[in-house]
Structures are given as structure tokens and as C-alpha cells.
Amino acid sequence: MSGTLARDLRVYAEMTKKLPLFTEWDDALNVLVWRSAIHDEVMAGESLSGEELRELRAADDRLVAQRDYLMAKFPGVFESKRSVDRREWWWYLDEGPRVREEAERAA
Question: Which residues lie below 8 Å from residue 74, measured CB to CB, with a gap of 6+?
Fold first, then answer.
């Protein structure tokens, strides 16, 4: 794993832990942007170890668990997804938590 991917994973994981504390729209948006950066790096050929995959899964679980909070506090954050591929399910959480499973099945 590259240093950039390792950093992005660490930042994303920490951000998902702090989601309930976010009060600013751009903080919530940044969580989705960091998750997309991880996705882009993996799609470009970077790989995650088993432990890193578990860390990513746990961070994704925290993101999904905070879906209702994000929707209530920052509904506009999901309006930025016009041309985003559905494999980037985190941009579609406004459609329900099932988008994650649908994206994983389609991959």
C-alpha cells in the first residue's frame, strides 16, 4: 500500500469516528471525498492488506451507522453526486443503507 493510501485510510477512519461531532456541512462532505480518494487509489491498482480492509470495513460501517444523522443535519451533502458512479455507494446514502450492499454485489 502506498503512503498516500495509508494516510487516506487513517484520515477517513478517524473522520468516521468523529461524524457525530460534525457541525459544518463541509466536514460531512469531506468524509465522502476522503472515501472516494481511497476508492480511486484502489481502482488505480493500490491494494489493502487484510487488516487495512478490516479497518476500511469498520469505517464504512460507522459511516452507514451515521446515515440518519447525516441526512438530518447535512441533507445537501448528497446533492453533489450527479456524475458519481454507483460503486461509490457513500454518495448515495440518502437512498438508504442498502446502497452499500447493492454496490458490493454489483462489483
Answer: 22, 25, 28, 29
pTM: 0.91
Give the integer Cα–Cα distance in Å for 102 and 42: 19
Neighbouring residues of 4: CB distance < 8 A, sequence distance ≥ 6: 41
Residue pLDDT, tens place only, 18-67: 999 999 999 999 999 999 999 999 999 999 999 999 999 999 999 999 99
Cα–Cα distance, 99 to 107 (Å, whole number): 12
Q: At what angle do helices 50-65 and 3-18 cross, to 10 degrees?
A: 30
